[in-house]
Amino acid sequence: MRKFRSNWSQGDRERYQERSDSYRERAGTSYLSRERWTHQEVVTSPLPKPVATSSLMASSVDFKTYVDQACRAAEEFVNIYYETMDKRRRALTRLYLDKATLIWNGNVVSGLDALNNFFDALPSSEFQVNMLDCQPVHEQATQSQTTVLVVTSGTVKFDGNKQHYFNQNFLLTAQSTPNNTVWKIASDCFRFQDWAST
């Protein structure tokens, strides 16, 4: 599992630690069979269906559950994405939708064939994620498609190059079946964050 450095507030660190502890506690249970990655895919249990209710308390509990599940999927996704990028790059496009778009430092790459060619041309890498944030995207903005915005930042060193700070934003979309949910990248925006020295 990737280590996240402590740019987080105390509350963020505590929530992350609680989730990490919870994951480790459930390692011997059926949790692993429900929420896992297979063939470089992020697979989780089915997402709850939104329930129409007039109770503000019930709707906030349902939304909290939805946010927690989205955050778990995002954390798992980040671990899989960067490990695959560093160690199994040929499998990376399995995480993308067929018509996904990548914007890499302002250069647009669309479609799986173009993505494969682009990733093959990159030198080997070592990513270190320092920050992760995520939130569900409101269904009105995504035509009722379950979508999560994932934001990461950290450092990367490509073979033969100096280390760079980076920021990366993903839009993950859920491909749901009755038994599970597979998360795929619909949009990916990567940008180096190095400041020019004066």
UniProtKB/TrEMBL annotation:
GO cellular component: nuclear RNA export factor complex
Residue ranges of domain NTF2 in the record: 73-192
Subcellular location, principal: nucleus
Keyword Kinase: no
UniProt keywords, alphabetically: Nucleus, Protein transport, Transport
GO BP, one annotated term: protein transport
Pfam families according to UniProt: NTF2 (PF02136)
CDD domains on file: NTF2
UniProt subcellular location: Nucleus
InterPro entries noted in UniProt: NTF2, NTF2-like_dom_sf, NTF2_dom, Nuclear_transport_factor_2_euk
Domain of life: Eukaryota
Protein name: Nuclear transport factor 2 like export factor 2
Gene name of this polypeptide: NXT2
